[in-house]
Amino acid sequence: MSLEIKVPAVGESITEVTLAEWLKQDGDYVEMDENIAELESDKATFELPAEKAGILKIIAQEGDTLEIGAVVCTIEEGDAPAAGGQMTEEAPTGKTETNDSEPVKDTESPDSYAAGTASPAAAKILREKGIDASTIKGTGKDGRITKEDAEKAQSKPATPASKPATAATPGVAPVAGSRNERREKMTSLRKTIAKRLVSVKNDTAMLTTFNEVNMQPIMDLRSKYKETFKEKHGVGLGFMSFFTKAVTTALKEWPAVNARLEENELVYSDFCDISIAVSAPKGLVVPVIRNAESMSLHQIEKEIIVLATKARDNKLTIDEMTGGTFTITNGGVFGSMMSTPIINAPQSAILGMHNIIQRPVAENGQVVIRPMMYIALSYDHRIIDGRESVSFLVRLKQLLEDPARLLLEV
Question: Is pLDDT at 175 greater than 50 in this prediction?
Fold first, then answer.
């Protein structure tokens, strides 16, 4: 008796997912609760477990968009491979190509059956490239062709039959360099990012205001206490904890910057759930630091490390990426000097950090060189007035240029 494995409900707002990758192959024996595939929603990637033990029969293919409740695969009745690698059922027979220097392998052995066989993901890639699987040497178990083998495979151009050149043969001007193109289907995450960014631009009265911060006081403080801080708390003291702490302090003074618009009502939050934009392998994600206003610098640093690590490993849950009240994004890590970040809806504002550049500035009537950073606040003008946005950014500048204020809360 077979069991249908369907796409589970993963969130109220999620109606479809993309089958990102099969972790097991068609015909493999799987254990109950063993992860067999990765599904990708518009918010996160999660794994699909087997609901019973048996033989996997794949129905949906990698890259397919599936609605919640759609059948992904079935698990048929079947026994696990016996000790020594022999299947309890008779394995398919087939011929194995050999050369004179190698003995002919038993056609019933798993080695000969798997050798030269492409996984579903690899087969799809080879079809798109127009490459015959028989020309690929697999590096997977028992010689199976893996997804990586297929991605590295290059199609061999056909060797044209030689013919004598004649004056009548028209010549084609050679083009220097490669002119290859490739197409990739947009992932659910990338499509959602694109849709939301366009929606924000169209549906909000977005405006950006700028200021600059002298980072010397924070850099001096970090330099003085970084070793003691790491020894005591087991984590480094970075810039993001200072910015997060400063943001939460300024949000208390200017609550509209921490508000959101729901239909005809303004919703003000008395807590600060700070979304931190992180560049993950599959796109930009914004995990949330809950109640950041009540956290110390070392608690913020530890939480950032946990969330950033999950983001890089595609292990963030949907709950960890929803519900933020304000977002911080740091384009400076990529070298950005100035930008106008786009609001993370339904929030009303986002702070953009940028790179730190040694620039001449005036202090007490003297020109000095200081490490300066431009900061940008993009905000929804329907909720936040110019006075509030500018005042919020000025207060942020004061806190960052005198970090003792963050500890004394003055």
Answer: yes
Q: Which of 26, 33, 385, 402 is catalytic?
A: 385
Q: Hunting for tokens 């600059």 — which residue is that?
A: 212
How large is the average pLDDT for residues 1-27?
A: 85
Of 33, 79, 203, 381, the catalytic one is 381
Active site residue 381: yes
Q: DSSP E strands: which ranges in 191-286? A: 206-214, 260-262, 265-267, 274-276, 278-280, 283-285
Residue 223 has a pLDDT of 92
Query: b vs e for 353-370, b when ≥16 Cβ sit within 10 Å of the residue's Cβ?
Result: bbbbeeeeeeeeeeeeeb
Distance between CA atoms of 343 and 327, rounded to whole angstroms? Answer: 8
Please tell me the number of Cα atoms within 13 Å of 1 on its side-chain side.
2
The token pair that represents 360 in the structure block: 């001449």
H/E stretch holding 47 reads strand 45-49
Angle between helices 297-312 and 216-233 (to 10 degrees): 80
Average pLDDT, rounded, for the chain: 83
Query: Looking at the whole model, is its pTM more than 0.85?
Result: no
Closest CA to 299 of 357, 372, 244, 218: 244
Q: Is 385 a catalytic residue?
A: yes
In CATH terms, 195-408 corresponds, of 2.60.40.10, 3.40.109.10, 3.30.559.10, 1.20.58.630, to 3.30.559.10
